[in-house]
Amino acid sequence: MEKGKMGGRPPEIRKDWVTNRWVIFSPARAKRPSDFKSKSPATPTQQQQYQQSCPFCLGNEHDCAPEIFRVPPDDPKWKLRVIQNMYPALSRAADVPVITVPVPAQEESSSLGQVMTGFGFHDVVIETPLHSLHLSDLSPTQIAHVLLAYTTRIHHLIANHSIKYVQVFKNHGASAGASMSHSHSQMMALPIVPPAVAARLDSMKDYFNRTGKCSVCEFNSNDLLIHASPHFISIVPYAATFPFEIWIIPLTHSPHFHELDADKAVDLGGILKLMLRKMALQLNNPPFNFVIQTSPLQDGASELPHSHWFLQIIPQLSVAAGFEIGTGCYINPVFPEDAAKVLREVNVLPLEGDD
């Protein structure tokens, strides 16, 4: 690499007060931020609107697992559907989970760990009836319908007191974990609070106890800002784990994603679309994941002042190798301020049908 290409900036090791994770920023391992491109775009540019072999296409509903609901309700020309996952990671038919501690037969005095039944819900949100469309092709209002489908389903799941946490996520592109090319996202309702979620919430609570402030509300650096809308900002986080990682954050303190209302859903749909299109233009339409980082369903009032939900977008531009696996500490070759500047400057023209 040409000496001084990244301005001779020395490496840094950063940790923010949300994830509480150390990240090494090592620009010597990278090209210029503007040179980052996905080597394997997520999807071909031309696709058919309908594929006979795709169970998610309009008219192939009989090939899917049972439907939970659709929008509009009972309409054969639906706009989106929420269905059970055909190959669920958890079983809604399993017994209500009870944690037990098994004892090995040969060593009565020792324990291997804890176990519970694999109870939970694993659902799929089919975001459009047309095979050729992706989430970023939809209008902000259409994306809002997808977001509100998530909140509707979460409200269904709250009634089951065994469910502690609902993870909404989207895998776009085969290398990001998508097994189907038809645009869809997933929801998993868990009888536990996952360890990464618990660690994030503990870090946010510790910051609040020390400062009296929400660590997510404190993200106000212009150097990290990509875009601001009436109700949301998009940023590259201060200690971004991955190159060109993006967070979309509500401007008003809000602990639970499922409290999102219809007006804010349209605004969120617009900024999410903008971020996906900026990312596609700048990074050659990379495979990506997004996840909604929210709060456990049963959080009480004492947990709400420090807990703030956000939507995290991760373009798949690098892989976790031995160092990351061994330490849990990631190496990011792009400083967040550089990534934010590049994304701010990507010019996205409006598409026909945008509202």
TrEMBL record:
Binds 1 zinc ion per subunit. Zn(2+) binds at C54, C57, H131, H182. The lineage of its organism: Eukaryota, Viridiplantae, Streptophyta, Embryophyta, Tracheophyta. GO terms for molecular function: UDP-glucose:hexose-1-phosphate uridylyltransferase activity; zinc ion binding. Keywords: Carbohydrate metabolism, Metal-binding, Nucleotidyltransferase, Transferase, Zinc. Belongs to the galactose-1-phosphate uridylyltransferase type 1 family. The active site is at H184. This is Putative UDP-glucose--hexose-1-phosphate uridylyltransferase. Its EC number is 2.7.7.12. Residues 14-194 form the Galactose-1-phosphate uridyl transferase N-terminal domain. Its cofactor is Zn(2+).
